[in-house]
Amino acid sequence: MNDLAATSRRLRDLGVRRAELLIDRRRAEANIATFAGRAAAAGVALRPHFKTHQSAGVAAWFRAAGVDRATVSSAGMAAYFVGHGWGDLTLAIPANPLEIPAYDELASRTRLGLCVDSAATAAALAAGLRHPFALWLEIDTGHGRTGIVWDDADTLIDVARQAVRAVAAHSPVPRLAGLLTHGGQSYRGAGPAAAAAVFAEVRDRLQASRRTLTQAGIAANLLSAGDTPGFAASSDWSGLDEARPGNFVFYDLMQLAAGVCRPTDLACAVACPVIGVYPARGEAMLHGGAVHLSYESLATPAGPVFGRLLGLTADGFAELLPGWEVTALSQEHGRLAAQTPAARTALNGLQPGDLVLVAPVHACLTCEQFGSYRTLDGVELPRYRRD
Amino acid sequence: MNDLAATSRRLRDLGVRRAELLIDRRRAEANIATFAGRAAAAGVALRPHFKTHQSAGVAAWFRAAGVDRATVSSAGMAAYFVGHGWGDLTLAIPANPLEIPAYDELASRTRLGLCVDSAATAAALAAGLRHPFALWLEIDTGHGRTGIVWDDADTLIDVARQAVRAVAAHSPVPRLAGLLTHGGQSYRGAGPAAAAAVFAEVRDRLQASRRTLTQAGIAANLLSAGDTPGFAASSDWSGLDEARPGNFVFYDLMQLAAGVCRPTDLACAVACPVIGVYPARGEAMLHGGAVHLSYESLATPAGPVFGRLLGLTADGFAELLPGWEVTALSQEHGRLAAQTPAARTALNGLQPGDLVLVAPVHACLTCEQFGSYRTLDGVELPRYRRD
Asked: Do A199 and A72 fall within a single domain?
């Protein structure tokens, strides 16, 4: 209760009046330093996925840690970061043939990596872009979303051969930049050991795909993989050339539930005003709904959870406040449930106009809901926004 | 397959290159006309909730249908519509005491309705606003989200009395504007009969709350209710003074599943490029994910559904294309599954660079993901965006 009240007072002192996304910069920088250190130790290039934050301000913290390349997930996001001086970007989603003019414009301004998992798209890119670009082949190492299945040797060789041929018609160095994968199955596991096992399997499968191509006389060069759970659970990243995790900069309740971060690593949260208190049903209502937190939820035995409360002290974000869960969202409302006797007692002290700090389930989607963030020391961080 | 290919060609002709939200204006205007007609027939004022579209351009279609008042869900959204000439707005979410300066500014520029369900917030508003405003008491008629429980006479009379007293200190006409409710439980039912039953129950309970206050000597004046399923399933709205549904302008798969609209009423959809085709698993991948569609899903026996495909003809949106479902989303990817033999055959004709039209599960949250929309005749419709 003390923590709840103290957090509310501090948020009010920060000038929060309505739902706002706050970032604990110290935690974010510590998370960046951990991953930059692991990359350096393994001789792996860190190419963080900027879709999590989409902010030039946060990107500058990466640059200060020695990172000079990044991953993005749309042409618009790439253009935003090129505009902020990023000169080496990989668009890690199968290229969209309809956006070739945008890719070509990007390729004229930055080192651009594009990825494909079909010969048709490779041919379209090679025919359509006038400026040089790096062509990556996307491999499905078990996630089952996009990419050529890692052990489907026939398709792999066929698409790679056609891709090289397509590039050859337009490039003095006709070769693939490398093989790229997203080990997204690491999100399905329970516990850090499972995530580390996914990391190892993804790396091994990517290496196997490269061997398949090498044996067929096709040079595939670099191996690039990226997913936060796998890389967070593995301290030794060797065997890869490039690491593309993104979420680790802020982490979230999903990563916490997977056991790959600590509560004290959570670096972004949504401050929300309390607009109603309902002691009879053990709940308060927040003006903070799906348009602020996103609709992604954590499955728990008692039902979905859309957020938990964090404490805030003079030193920054603190531990999670036990006993509080956001159990339902509508467009603008968030239902905050007091789940323990202590929380139900503390609920009686809540008033409309108090503020709480909600740790999101999925930081990437929550960040997407805001046009800018604010650090605890009051620095505004605008971000890229799609039209 | 024919429809799939024809839709892709038409979307390409419209100039769609990446995920974009399209609106069939003719359908939206027909939906508006239906609701404006029911309101007029019952002598009920239509005060549509603009949180669904948040666009001055769409709001203008309402104005053309004779609507001169609206509902919003945040002070920022209110300011946007005041800036576009809307002079009568109700903020239908319990007022946030921290935003009193913003409310006062709004009240200086428009007829502003605010709602409360606690004496503390009523007192804070009355003390804090210098400009006149309409104070609504929010009633919980069964939704269980916000509001005073409709048959909790003691609380109702107590809060109403304190609210009137608070207003009295600042107004020559010390009275409540009325009782306001959101019959959101209509979203839980199955079928139009259930939604119509919720409508009737909500109206009856709201009337009962007013009688309780009247008997205690407190004038509560108007009765305002709003939820699309209930109002869509009920052709006779009499017994209320004001109707505040919002979603009906576009409808969506959730309303369709509830049986309160037809496929031919669906008026917004997201055009998405195909970026991968995977016949072996009967799927294609769209560059259209949670950041485009939102993460809200429809529960089906086979698992969650995040969207279905619509056809597009020269006349506008057509029927749903059978056999296609968006079965998973990540941040930017949407997994499109071919669920019938015919769809699996058609899948073989799909290529990266083709386009599909995805009907969203929840239009309000999908619209929230875009900075602007486009009508099928090429008119750009910008919308309000939170910072």
From this structure: yes
